[in-house]
Design brief:
The structure is a homodimer of 207-residue chains.
Chain A lengths: L7 H11 L6 H12 L3 H17 L1 E2 L6 E2 L13 E8 L2 H10 L4 E5 L18 H8 L5 E4 L5 H14 L5 E4 L15 H9 L11
Parallel strand pairs in A: 3-4, 3-5, 5-6
Antiparallel strand pairs in A: 1-2
Helix pairs in contact in A: 1-2
Chain lengths: 207, 207
């Protein structure tokens, strides 16, 4: 739609929605007109939930994940192994790993990855506090779980250099053929890497 | 994601987003966390644009489309043919017809279609004001441009009965094979209807 909107208020609301990732002008118009049909209390509920989150959200003082308390439920949980730290980019990644139900350690949220192109340098990320956590000597293993991209690799290497003197065990999540994928459709780099980094076969099915 | 959110504020905001059409839990989380990374002023801008629209939006007293003024720019435009009224379901449809640049008349926004299943009866729609507009005698033609669904057809027929005594010319937008579509992929009902309602060929290309 390249047409002018019949109302400037409508246009302003649509413009705000198009700033969100993956929302174009057409979808934004549909969402805004949907809200416009709702009762005023409902629209206020929507609007307030977002601004309240922004104003009142706290971040865990240990792992930097979002939390209602100073220390998040994962960091303060005595059932979690506090000696294993999984380093992730953002809060979504914490939720993604939690959903696997395969991890009983704790996290460290970097807040992004090193990306000179986007102006993100190591000092913009929560790397100093990670080094601090490790330097207490209470952490046995750091698992790097960043994206499999150039930026993720750069960040992995930067953290590796920062922590290599501490003697902490550093590991990286396995890369390979996704479960359920057929070999012929896998990209060459992943397939090559999955052969080089082959694992002992335990006779157990993974599917 | 069926996991609990690390923050109730986050969960509340995500829940509000999932109420929007076509937004699931995963997309909602992505949108909310995107907003959370923005500056407080920007989030306020987003939040305010929506609530301001809801609180201050006016509707044109003539055609019921959204407007910043009592009479919308289309209804008050002397260049538009005020004697032809195009009846549409909602504001999006006004914008869609406007985008075609093919229509120089005015509109009447019903606010939906008759749908007993969804509890929408004729009295919930702006039909009385349409009858009123026509009864002034200043309207020559009413074009029905509703969805090609059972509900749209029911609404067309209801309006037809309401207006048949007034002597106004009633027309309905053409239904047929969409421009650019191949016959073999068209559904049978549309194809059959396009043969029954064939038009004189003028020798002019429509593409």
């Amino acid at each position: 739609m390249n047409q002018e909107y019949p109302s400037t208020l409508l246009e302003r609301a649509v413009k705000e929605f198009t700033k969100l990732p993956g929302i174009g002008r057409k979808t934004a118009t549909r969402l805004v007109l949907h809200l416009l049909r709702k009762k005023e209390e409902e629209v206020e509920g929507f609007s307030n939930a977002i601004i309240t989150l922004k104003k009142e959200a706290k971040y865990c003082k240990v792992c930097h994940s979002i939390s209602d308390t100073d220390i998040c439920p994962i960091c303060s949980n005595p059932m979690r192994d506090q000696s294993i730290v999984c380093v992730v980019e953002n809060i979504q990644d914490v939720m993604a790993v939690e959903n696997t139900m395969q991890y009983r350690g704790v996290y460290h949220v970097l807040g992004g990855v090193i990306s000179p192109m986007d102006g993100v340098s190591p000092s913009d990320l929560n790397i100093a506090t990670l080094v601090e956590r490790v330097s207490t000597g209470e952490i046995k293993e750091v698992i790097l779980a960043l994206s499999s991209t150039m930026e993720g690799d750069t960040t992995n290497f930067y953290i590796y250099r920062k922590l290599s003197q501490t003697g902490v065990k550093l590991s990286v999540i396995a890369r390979g053929i996704a479960i359920g994928d057929e070999l012929e459709y896998a990209d060459e780099v992943t397939l090559g890497s999955s052969i080089v980094n082959r694992m002992p076969f335990t006779g157990k099915s993974v599917i």
